[in-house]
Write a structure and sequence with these properties.
single chain; 374 residues; alpha/beta; GMP Synthetase, Chain A, domain 3; nine-stranded mixed beta sheet; four-stranded mixed beta sheet; 13 strands; 36% helix; disordered C terminus
Amino acid sequence: MKFIKVMFIFIFLLITIAGCAEQKLLEQVGLTTLLGYDLGENEKLSTTAVIRQVNPEFQSNVEIVSAENETARGSRAEINRKTSKKIMSGQMRVVLFGEELAEDGIAHHIDTLSKNSDTSGSIIVAVVEGETKSLLEYQFQEIDDIGTHIYKLLEQNIKNEQMISSSLHEVAHDYYSLGRDIAIPIIKRDKEHVEISGVALFDKGKMVGKLSTEESFYVKLSRDLYDSAMFEITIPKEALPESQTKNSPEKIPVVIDTINTKKQVKLINPQTPEFDMHITVNGRMLEIGANMDLDNPKNVKKLEEEIGKSIAKNLERVLVYCQDVNSDAFGLGEYYRSSVRHSNLTHEKWHELYSTAKVNIKVDFTILRSGIFE
């Protein structure tokens, strides 16, 4: 009994001391949740930090602090001199790059962040239309913590497979990988809202092109696998039976969700080079802009064929654009490198081949019917 009392007192004191230490620590530091980088004046780097500070009553407030220096480390040191508390980066969740800086090149910054032991590989990387500073310093009426808001915006869209994943670990992998280029989300301010506006395409470490949010579906389709997602596609009215499309628009919208995919890519000619890409897509149809009789197996079969053709056509269009801007967002170089032994492939050599590569795309789509369609 005496032993139990002693242990109880010991545990109570330990919790009390730990609680005091935690409170004292939080009072002394500011937690950086987001960093934004822009091109500054005279080729300097402009850094904007979103910092959460906690007072003795455990009430927090958010402070936006900016500084310019020749290096990221130097900018962060200047930011530290502008705050009353020591800045810590252990809670950082997002790194943003301004559009001009992204076009100039982010390779050095990705390398620096990857080698920083205080930086988690799970932080999300994105590009901002315009400057990150103007976005972060804007006084939003309904957003109290812009750092947390942007993180949750990106996180939930990536988690729900509405946007390609862009963790620091993944971005660094794509940068260092021979045969695959970086592709990351773009965000922008639209009046009082922050929204994802597309995907930034890179050649090595420089941004060379953009895709819309709709087109980002095809980049993810070619790079990764879908487990559960939703997308909308249009089918030409004339491609479906006339009896099923009366009073329908010329382009019939179809909404699909619960998508899961499988993909096979095979190099069939190393010289051209030429690839066969076969993608199998299964999905549940939520909505269609035509009064089709989906109890008729022939109508369902025709609809599946046309959805597959439409996906393949759009995928080919996005691929051609990626070739035009010289960004291998599809990762075709990885398939080439793994298929051709002793290729002595370099980034320059692959991109010379990539610009004229031919890809034969075939998409097999199957409707997973449920509810009233069963």
